[in-house]
Amino acid sequence: MSGVFKINITQTAQQLKTLLGKQTTARGKERILALYLLKINKTQTLKDLAVVLGRDTATLYRWLHQYKSDGLEGMLVIRKGQGRKPAIPQAVMEQLRQQLENSDQFKSYGAVKNWLKEEYGIDASYKVVHEAVRYKLNIKLRSSKPRNGQRTRQLKAKE
Predict the structure, then answer these.
(1) Rounded to two decimals, what is the model's pTM?
(2) How far from 128 is each of 28, 70, 102, 146, CA to CA, in Å?
(3) Sequence-separated (6 or more) residues with CB below 8 Å from residue 147
(4) Separation of alpha carbons 18 and 34, rounded Å
(5) How many helices (H) and strands (E) does the chain have?
(6) Nearest to 106 by CA among 141, 79, 137, 58
(7) Looking at residue 63, what DSSP letter applies?
(8) Which residues contact 96 (CB under 8 A, 6 or more apart)?
(9) Structure confidence by residue, pLDDT tens digits, 12-52
(10) Could you tell me if residue 17 is left (phi over 0), alpha (psi between -120 and 50 degrees) or otherwise beta?
């Protein structure tokens, strides 16, 4: 019969049903369900299984191929992507933390941005520098601008 995928599922239907109840992720449940439906002969072809699960046949083929090569554990492994690398590496962040805590050389985020460019060749945007200093390092830069109340007092003192 065309479209029949030859696979030897080593677990029993009862074991798969038990595993199905123990799954905590939708991803795991879907994959175990696919094996379970094949084991109890609810579906005969990948096309039938795709209709029942609402998945593409290529996806099911990939799952079953992974089961054949890596077993049940390999099929259920959740791989985590590495994600985007930070604009300011961790080692540089530590150096920046030390500079900010030990000296008053930085009066603005622009000064921090220039320091990163000169010292490490990192051309980070103002937004990246602001988020790194203010939210990741939890450091507030001391502003040289007078606050509203201070400015009013200064103006009155001049008069």
Answers:
(1) 0.54
(2) 37, 42, 22, 25
(3) none
(4) 14
(5) 8, 0
(6) 141
(7) H
(8) 88, 112, 115, 116, 132, 133, 137
(9) 999 999 999 999 999 999 999 999 999 998 888 899 999 99
(10) alpha
